[in-house]
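$ fold --in a.seq
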Amino acid sequence: MTTTVVLEEDLFKDTITRERKRTERSGLSMALLLVGVQDGSSDRSEVRSSLVEVLSELGSETDLIGWFEGRTLLGLLVIDVDPAQLEQVCERVEADCRRALSARIGQAAEDISLRMRVYPEACQVGEEGYDEDPFLFPELPARRQAAASFHMVKRCFDIVASGVLLAVLSPLFLVIACLVKLSSPGPVIFRQTRVGQGMKPFMMCKFRSMYANNDHGIHQNYVSWFINSSDKAPAKDKGQVFKLTSDPRITPIGHFLRKSSLDELPQLCNVFCGEMSLVGPRPPLWYELQQYKPWHRHRVLEAKPGITGLWQVTGRSRTTFDEMVRLDLRYARAQSFWTDIKILLATPAEVIRGKGAC
């Protein structure tokens, strides 16, 4: 008779983290069934034994069983699931578990709670943003605690630096505002909904560089190509600019503002308000996010969006989308105040060179 291996909590959490990352590479999905005993249950040790037996019978040879929350919650991790079959697999596993528990422990099965978690989840953007499921991202609390002091220093620096820059650059703001107003009809400031950290939307500000009331379909089609096909470009084109060029929507002054990155100066207001940082990944549009692969989403989960970042000072628009995401993730997972300073110091030179800016 084969002995069921039930992983202890720390090992089970490490396993979930590893399997979640593996799904991002394989394109497959995974499901986590959480089975818990309510506090009012009479003989909890006997019920736990029954739970282990039931889950071991339900799972396949590759599925894993482990404890959560001090052995009060038992999990069955079903791995390597075809995404097209994920919903059916979840329904079947949950229904089979309920039937098996009823047959084994009878009335006591009513004290058992069942919860199903899946990864990757459907990508949703809402006013409250997106909170990673603590059962699917068990490593996050320790990571956030370790980075808490850095984020406090980073926020203080953002407030002081953005406030000083807004005051010092106010005459330049006025000049640019007049040029934008004289160049074409429409508002001076262009406001656009972007997706911030935790997939929480916010209104990003820029100096308007396009004609008012234009069609966004051109950019949406380009973004779709950039995300899905830029890495498939011929090798001879890999060093070329991967950014929408010759855009008929851009005004004459808009070309200069974009080339010099002056159109992004109003984002200092977003930084001062805490929606952005001086340094971080660029915030995507909602239709960009809808085309992200699961591993792409980490660029909006692990760091606050910024005006400049590692991508801007190393690759800017000359990289493929996947390369850009890897640069953002490299920054997010190794953030430091010194790294931010180096990126900020390198940004003016990149802006002057104008490579990759359009």
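$ fold --in b.seq
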Amino acid sequence: MYVKELPGFGLPTLRAQIMHILNCEAFWIHTLQAAEYQDEDPADWSTIPDARRLQHCVGANTLAYLSGLTDEQLNTETELHFPDGDTAVRTPALILHHVLTHAFHHKGQIVSMCRILGHPAPDTDLNPIR
């Protein structure tokens, strides 16, 4: 089920959707920290328990970054530098908002995919942070 391809989704498997969400969050947090990021290869995280470990690592890095910011820093424009040489000026708050809405979009796709596969997704909106 985790790697079964479903037509009609830009990312055709649950694993691809999950890895995309995690890679995007990690990319943006690294970019905010002016650090390079190399996407994780889905093949290296081939099972659901693997993805949960990666989710924990990415989330811990995000929380560590956030815990070091003041409200003023969170809302101060900063110049972001991308691997292709492009730059942009954004606040960390705006980038974090993008990370969240992006994840929500793909979470909806994951729920739809689970339903198609005959496994309705459980409520995950208020899972405790572990």
